[in-house]
Design brief:
There is one protein chain. By secondary structure, this protein is an alpha/beta fold. The chain contains 6 helices and 8 strands; from the N terminus they run E-E-E-H-H-E-H-H-E-H-E-H-E-E. A 6-stranded mixed beta sheet has the order 5-4-3-6-7-8, sandwiched between helices. Helix 6 links the parallel strand 6 (156-159) and strand 7 (177-181). The longest helix is centred in the last third of the chain and has 11 residues, at 142-152. It is extended and about 85 Å long. It starts with 55 loop residues before the first strand and ends in an 11-residue tail after the last strand. Residues 68-167 form the PIN domain. Keywords: Nucleus, Ribosome biogenesis, rRNA processing. Residues 28-47 are annotated as: Disordered.
Length: 199
């Protein structure tokens, strides 16, 4: 004999024990909601305002000056190789001053992950003229790392051709962006009295 078919009742919920029930273990029991205090309209409201960096004179960054420290992104090295540009020399041609390319641990890890095809980029990144910056955070997502670094220390120029990263860095005042156009390096948001003429 088969089982008797039971008509399903719709929208019937299983009865659940309340989270504040005495039978639940005391540690797992939900605390009774504390009564909300009525806000005093005459009380002075406190709000946290981020401190404005002292190195900025409006949008003009006074910390920028030769020798320039340039944070290099992964794709910037790859596109430089494609355009047959020497990184350090082309940076000096762009800014007319000594430039120190800086490579973070995240960028180095990204290049290493790209594998055998990008071994030239890896060899360039390990150049002794490049400064290595250690990373203390978790993960190896270079974009977040670069954005966080320039937000904290506004003494860097960011070299990238990534549209998304450029868009994020444009929101941070006083950080110039170096990019590749017409087979040479160009810079945006740099004070006019520094470096080569813009094209």
């Amino acid at each position: 004999q088969g089982k008797q078919k039971k008509a399903r009742k719709y929208a019937v919920m299983k009865r659940m024990i309340s989270l504040r029930d005495q039978r639940i273990n005391e540690k797992e029991r939900a605390k009774a909601a504390a009564k909300k205090k009525k806000e005093d309209p005459s009380a002075i409201k406190e709000r946290e305002v981020p401190q404005h960096p002292s190195c900025l004179f409006f949008q003009y960054n006074t910390q920028l000056g030769p020798p320039y420290h340039i944070l290099v992104d992964t794709n910037f090295i790859n596109f430089s190789i494609k355009a047959k540009l020497d990184l350090v020399q082309s940076m000096m041609d762009c800014l007319y001053a000594k430039c120190i390319p800086c490579i973070t641990d995240c960028v180095m890890a990204e290049i290493e992950k790209l594998g055998q095809r990008y071994r030239v980029a890896l060899r360039i990144a390990k150049d002794p003229r490049f400064e290595r910056l250690p990373c203390t955070h978790k993960g190896t997502y270079a974009d977040d790392c670069l954005v966080q670094r320039v937000t904290q220390h506004k003494c860097y120029i960011v070299a990238t051709v990534d549209k998304e990263l450029k868009r994020r860095i444009r929101k941070i005042p006083g950080v110039p962006i170096m990019y590749i156009s017409r087979h040479r390096y160009n810079i945006e948001r740099m004070p006019d009295d520094y470096g080569a003429p813009r094209f």
